[in-house]
Amino acid sequence: MPIERRDLLLAAASLAVASAAGRALAADRPAGYAIVGLGTYGLGVIAPQFANCRHSRLTALVSGDPAKARAAAARYGVPERSIYSYETFDQIAGNPDVDIVYVCLPNSMHAEYTIRAAKAGKHVMCEKPMAVSVAEAEAMIAACKAADRKLMIGYRCHFEPYNLEAMRLARAGAAGKIRYLRSEHGFIQSDPSKWRLKRALSGGGSLMDMGVYSLQAARYMTGEEPIEVAARESTDRSDPRFAEVEDMIEWLLKFPSGAIASCLSMYSANQNHVLLMGDKGRIELEPATRYDGNRMWTGRDGRAQEITPPPGPAPTQFAGQLDHMAQSIRTGAEPIVSGEEGLRDMKIIEAIYLSAREGRAVRL
Ligand code: NDP
């Protein structure tokens, strides 16, 4: 490309960044999302959810697979000009229909695409785990701050009726003084070729995946920040699935009130369970954090009562999450699950790995 034309394009791109950064989201316009990574979650789960949104719409797609992207664009009414590859991604700066970039990539790519999106003048929704290290998470927060863009983590359970009601009941003292919490998440990872089992892409094993749900539940159910962690890992390294990452990891979190959370994640059994015990009763969810079909009970003196929670903020937890980000941009409020919330988890995750590796408790 001749230098003059390249310079013109660069100038146009930075003008677009400036105007995007200065442009508030009009009240009558839904926020436009670009999904980056058309995989099981981005394409299979998130893309159809815009039909349930009031404040958000799908306006662009980013993929390494042009045929898949074109088919998805046709299905969801995204114009061909709003399809990007990973190489052309930065040109999204000039697309006024995109307000938010939703990063649905393998974990080790979250930081790069969050930072590139912020530099392109876009707000960012990033999937969990936020990143593969504390350093990356901090760089993502700094990039969004520098660009005056919002950063939210895809912690969908904060918009899910059963988890919301469980949080409310726990905070309202339904179980009395919280003493103990158990949070276990796992599924059987059967395909050794999956990126989740490659350290360079996943950053770690079950902890980086299902463990995030166990950790999040321990924090949002108790409403406390842990002060100490003690972890141990059990992985059969001769199993070809676990040559690079851990299978099972268990950790105890100690909270300032004296409450203890016993958390677990694994890739060799199916489990999805949260149990909170207090001095007056218990709150139990099983399954606890699925896309649908969650159930909840409260218990006292050996008697359990099944609870049907009030409806959540949107028809589905995914729509609630997407619209919350759109409304946060509109009102200027910080998303309830911001980059800082993801960073808090990343710090604990690093401490869990350190504790398991060194066989000692780690103060947080
Ligand atoms: P998938 O493997 O199904 O999809 C990932 C997509 O990323 C691929 O389809 C591909 O899209 C793109 N990609 C780019 N580079 C690579 C690469 N080197 N290897 C593999 N894929 C690549 O993963 P998921 O959709 O299950 O997970 C994506 C993210 O979403 C993860 O961070 C995960 O933790 C999170 N997630 C969150 C869930 C939640 O409930 N909040 C549930 C499931 C996942 P393309 O072909 O378009 O380039």
Summarize this entry quickly.
By secondary structure, the chain is of the alpha/beta class. The protein has helices spanning 3-22, 42-46, 66-76, 110-119, 134-146, 161-171, 199-202, 206-209, 211-222, 317-331, 339-358; strands at residues 31-36, 56-62, 83-84, 100-103, 123-126, 151-153, 178-186, 228-234, 248-254, 260-266, 271-278, 282-285, 296-300, 303-307, 362-363. Helix 5 (134-146) packs antiparallel against helix 11 (339-358).
Notes on the structure:
The protein is an alpha/beta fold. The chain folds into two domains: 3-156, Rossmann fold (3-Layer(aba) Sandwich), CATH 3.40.50; 161-311 and 342-363, 2-Layer Sandwich (Dihydrodipicolinate Reductase, domain 2), CATH 3.30.360. The protein has eleven helices and 15 strands. A nine-stranded mixed β-sheet has the order 14-13-12-11-7-10-9-8-15. It has a six-stranded parallel β-sheet with strand order 3-2-1-4-5-6, sandwiched between helices. Helix 4 (110-119) runs parallel beside helix 5, helix 5 (134-146) runs antiparallel to helix 11 (339-358) and helix 6 (161-171) packs parallel to helix 9. The protein is globular and about 60 Å long. Residues 1-22 have low confidence and may be disordered. The protein binds NADPH dihydro-nicotinamide-adenine-dinucleotide phosphate (NDP). Residues 37-42, 63-65, 68, 104-107, 127-128, 154, 156, 195, 201, 209 line the site of NADPH dihydro-nicotinamide-adenine-dinucleotide phosphate.
